[in-house]
């Protein structure tokens, strides 16, 4: 009954593929669910045909499909419109013949069937409507995802099915948090708005395979060896391997974006990250024990006699955006010695620093703390501690008076910050820095280039570890310079 334009731009009769069959089965079991998918599995196509079909035979239906931008909004509506136009005027419903319902177009994105009081609308949001079915596409790419969903979900009737279908767009955004909130519970006991989570990998498609030669044996490189654990055959492995070899010529981690085999790969392989995510994935997590006094202070290696250590500190204003304060201690070989990473007020942060000095993580090159607008309280409290004199000071010359001045802590600005981050990225990429605290691996995943090509934490994410560790790396360079002299 329904015709679509396929990938080869041919008009063909619609037939569900395996991915669409999975969605069909899920909709029979769950009213609200999230589809995290690889590219071009046909999820949106299935949805609008399913609900166009409802408009053909049921009454009083209001179907809303939301797109993430105007271009996609127009594209989806044109596909719905084409499919409707191809429906024959007389529909054979097995035991009787039904006429194709007439429609009128109220605007460029809406079809209305007056004789049945049905509406199909492709919109940018669903506000001011009370849908009987809501399908949200590419939520992870919406800048206004949180306010849009906050305004949408409470307006849904209890009987309204709601499907969120999207590819991933990195870790840390609204969609990622929504997925993780529901993923481990499968939509059960998880608050008012509970979603069942469905991941659809690219290899679900029937065409995701490449025939093998009689003599051929598939040998996978280490980075994609994990697909051995998947329920796929040798032809599917070969297809995956071929695509990996094709994409790795430019950048090997991009195969995760094009052909994710797990939800983790889907999130890690997207976005525009500063750090190579394939390398970040394999950075070492060292065993540790927690300090007796501060439970969030992890001790990885105890200090050794006659050794010096680098302590980089990034402060956060207590209560501001729930940021973290971080303290990273490394030795001259950049081995991870200790790490504190948690939300903490200024006076408590000073106590943690003092505790590390008590444990003999002593630096011959002063204590480096980032100077920014959130560290004033910490600086004020630091005066109460004997270690105050060990705080690093920058020596500058006043341009007006030509006098030498001193400023506590290390200042980062528009000039020094990009250089500091660039050197830190190089240290990870070249294998100079190989160990991290497992709590903060996600910071390296979600530190991206924004639209202005500035390196920063993705929205709803943090960069406190990165800045603290950048400072620790700069200390290492400085100590090395002093020793050479």
Quick structural gist:
The chain has 14 helices and 25 strands. The protein is α/β, with parallel strands linked by helices and 485 residues long.
Properties at a glance:
485 residues; alpha/beta; Rossmann fold; Nucleotidyltransferase, domain 5; 3 domains; 8-stranded mixed β-sheet; 7-stranded mixed β-sheet; 14 helices
How much strand content do the residues show?
15-25%
Separation, N- and C-terminal Cα atoms: 82 Å
Tell me the overall shape: elongated
How many structural domains in the coordinates?
3
**Helical content (DSSP H or I, runs of 4+):** 25-40%
Low-pLDDT segments: 480-485
CATH architecture of the largest domain: 2-Layer Sandwich
Mean pLDDT: 79
List the helices and strands and how they pair.
Elements: E1 3-5, E2 11-13, H1 18-29, E3 32-37, H2 43-57, E4 62-66, H3 70-85, E5 90-93, E6 96-99, E7 104-107, E8 110-113, E9 118-123, E10 133-137, H4 145-152, E11 162-166, H5 174-183, E12 196-200, H6 234-248, H7 254-258, H8 263-268, H9 277-281, E13 284-285, E14 289-290, E15 297-299, E16 309-314, E17 325-331, E18 336-342, H10 346-358, E19 368-371, H11 376-382, E20 393-397, E21 404-408, E22 410-411, H12 416-429, E23 435-436, H13 441-445, E24 447-449, E25 455-457, H14 464-484
Parallel strand pairs: 3-11, 3-12, 4-9, 4-10, 10-11, 13-23, 16-19, 19-22
Antiparallel strand pairs: 1-2, 5-6, 7-8, 8-9, 14-15, 15-18, 16-17, 17-18, 20-21, 24-25
Helix pairs in contact: 2-3, 10-11, 12-14
